[in-house]
Every structure is written in C-alpha cells, then in structure tokens.
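G., the chain you wanted modeled:
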Amino acid sequence: MGEPHAIVVGAGIGGLAAALALHRRHWRVTVLERAAAPRELGTGLTLMANALRGLDALGVGDTIRRQGVPDSPGGLRTSAGHWLSRIDGAALERTLGTAALGIHRTALHRLLRDALPASTLVTGADVVDVDADLPAVTYQRNGTPTTLPADLVVGADGLHSVLRRRLWPDLPAPAYSGSTAWRAAIRWTAPVATAVTWGPGREFGTVPLGDGGLYWYAAETAPPGGREPDELAAVRDRFGGWHEPIPALLAATPPGAVLRTDLFHLATPLPSYVRGRVALLGDAAHAMTPHLGQGAGQAIEDAVVLGAACAGGTDELAGALAAYDRQRRPRSQAIARASARAARYGQQLRHPAAVALRDGVLRLTPARAALRAAARYADWRPPG
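Predicted structure as tokens:
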C-alpha cells in the first residue's frame, strides 16, 4: 500500500505547518493555494514559546531562530511613556524554557515552504467545494475544474474559509471585533523594546525583527470599512504625539509600507473542528483577534497535534481526527475568548475612569504575577 494522501487547502503559515507535520509522518501531501504564487502577506509577528516548541517538533525551530530576534525586555506603557507593567525577557525565557522571537511573516513562510518537497504546492488552485465523506476537493485552475480525492483533507484556508462555509453552513460569518489595525515592517537598527502602548481606545506595539528590521502595529476602536487616502498620515494623526520612539518610527515608515486591516474573529465557536475526514485548523477553525499574539502560535499547535494524531496513516483515522478535535478545540477556543477579553480591557477601553482604574491595577500588580500572566498561554508542549 502506498503512502496515505492528504490535501491541505491554504498555504499560509498554518497550512504549510500542517503539510510539514503530515509529511514528517509519511503522508504524501498536496497543498492547494488560491494565489498565483506562494506568498504570505503581512509584516511581522511574535512567536511565543508554544509556537517555537511546535516548530521544533516540525524540525525547523533552529533554522527559524537564526532568522528572528529574541524579544528584548518590554511590557505595557501609557501614551506618555510611563510604564504600567514590565516584562523581563530573560525571566520569561527562564519560566518557559525558550525565548519569544520576532520574525517577518515572509521569512517564516519561506522557511516552512522550503522544508517541503517542491512538488507539494499547487498554486492558482481556487477551491470551490469539498466532500467530507470521500473525501475530495474540487478546485478551479486555469479555468479547468478538477476534483482531487485523498484520504484526508485539511482546511487551512483562513478567516473566510470555503471549507468551513461548506461543512458548517449554518455557522454565523466571522464578526467584526470592533478594532481596525495598521501594520508596517521597516528598516530600524536602533534598540527598541518589544512593547505595547495603550491610550484610550488605541494601542501601538513594536516587535524587533531579524536583519535590522522592525515591525510596528497600531489599532483603534472604530467602525468597520474605514479607509484613508494616506493611511500613514492617518496613523501619524492618531499616534504621532505619543512617546518616543513612536513618532520616529512613523517618520521612518514609507507610505506604501502600511497595511490596514479590520479585525474579524469567529465570535460563534465551531461545535467541532472535524467533519467526516476533513479537519480544520488555524483561522479556519478559530480565527481570533491578535491581542494575545497567539494566532500563528495556535495554528502551529494545531498542525503539530494533527500530525501526531495521524501518525498511523489511514488506520483508525476517524479516531485520530476525534483525538485532534478533543485536544485542540478546548484550548484554542479558550485562547480566542481570552484574546477578545484582552481587547475589551486593553486597546478598546475608552472611558477615562475605566482606563484610570485598569492602569492603577497594572501598576500595583507584582512583577511575578505579570510574568505568570504573560506566560500563561505560551506554556504548551507538543505531544510526546
């Protein structure tokens, strides 16, 4: 009998991680990507300890560590620059056993892609339907429809997942979180902490990247659909009077480098991540707000657990997928709920009295308690 065959729909970070996890467990994998060329849009991200442990399990952790920058000491500040809470990066590393890492999304995407056989990825494949029982995927490529059978289908097709809509048609669409965000990756060689600054209804964050780069993001509570002729000017208008180095970072940002995205999430959780022989992961399964920095980390965890569950190939595949759902759904959905709460009590908080109360509590919180809170969601280890 030949290798079992898996189709992964979507070649983002979660999809490539899932393909690698299954490939390492002796599955033949086909990744169907709608885009005409492999790419990962976006700027930077922080890989917490859980994500790095997952990447270690996929055999690429050391390579990725060489591409990124370990988090420097940081924490939370007010728009005037006063520290509300400090997080010592070295203490966090001692607590979790590994440092968090800032890396450009493009670099992470490339490293995952390069770890797979070149024949794995099929680009320009627009998936239009899925059969969970066969299973099989139907896609359009160059105007030609193709139905491709497999032993397993993995839905990693993101926030607006086609597979999720097909298999759970009654599930409400992703909901607007109440926040819009701007992001950019720029050249910046001066030391900058990995930190978040809060103002009423707004936040600004910085993450150093490898090769002299820095990722910044800004967010505010606003109606969806807003757009400005010059998004960088809009960010300067809102954040240009905040503490340094925020004005300097904005001055160093080319206008064309700024991406604006309304933040959506799955407000109604899925009742299962599995339907027949189809398993969802990443944003397709549990799209969350970015306020805990766990979106990519949870997708990587999903991929590692799915690969481990399916190590036996097609033998007892139904039980393997049930085990995947049992392990991943409670944790990932709890983190999604926590991320939405973090937004409400963090960036989205606007009432002056509520902001003052929150900031006062943070100032009085012992450093050890703040460290435990920072480590809580990153304390995960792959299956043995």
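The first helix runs from residue 13 to 24.

Shout if anything looks off.
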